[in-house]
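User: Hi! I'm working on a homework problem where we have to compare a predicted structure to a textbook description. Could you give me the structure for the chain below?
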Amino acid sequence: MRQIFLDTETTGLDPRQGHRIVEVAGVEMVNRRLTGNRFHRYLNPERDIDAGAQQVHGLTSEFLQDKPRFADIADELIAFLHGAELVIHNAPFDMGFLNAELQRLDRLPMVEYCPTVTDTLKLAKDLHPGQKNNLDALCRRYAVDNTSRTLHGALLDAELLGAVYLGMTRGQESLVMEVGAPAAQFGPQHSTVHAPLKVILADIQELAAHDTELTRIEQEGRNASLWRAAPME
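Assistant: Happy to help. Predicted structure tokens:
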């Protein structure tokens, strides 16, 4: 199973208002193991960056001035992502921006290249209702070191998300086993024959204590004890 942990940084909050992507990154995982393959680009958005957005990611127009435009890297990005499951924290936000960029180029929406998208924010809310579920909170919850995250950054956040996702889905490793794979591939097999159970009977003192407790219960309830009426095996 091939997954790409994806993140973007933008000039603002709403692509419908003309805001653009200024950074995009993806980190590849295959069968729950990071491969080391990644995609990372800073982009010239060809417009100003909102002050609030700049405070979040720290990217300036001056820094991005000589960077490629989305149109310059679109084919390379699609080739990297194609066919993978996208794993994104707050997926509607990033997918909205990616689709807006693709639409400007008269390209198909992202779902045509990557039909499966997993939103880890929704997953986290299902697992931890009523709690903070931003990336920093999830890093703390799953013991992922995020001390280097002083600002948002697409590559760092994609890497952190990969580590958080493994923590959130721990115990599902068996789901990625290939159907039809030889049993020996997954380690030694164990016999289903069980040793005889060892039966330990109560001794005289324990039986006497049990009888005393039943007598007390009968006196308090003024009824015969069900335990005395039950047949002994």
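For your comparison, note the following. The chain has one domain: 2-178. The domain at 2-178 is CATH 3.30.420.10 (Nucleotidyltransferase; domain 5). Good luck with the assignment!
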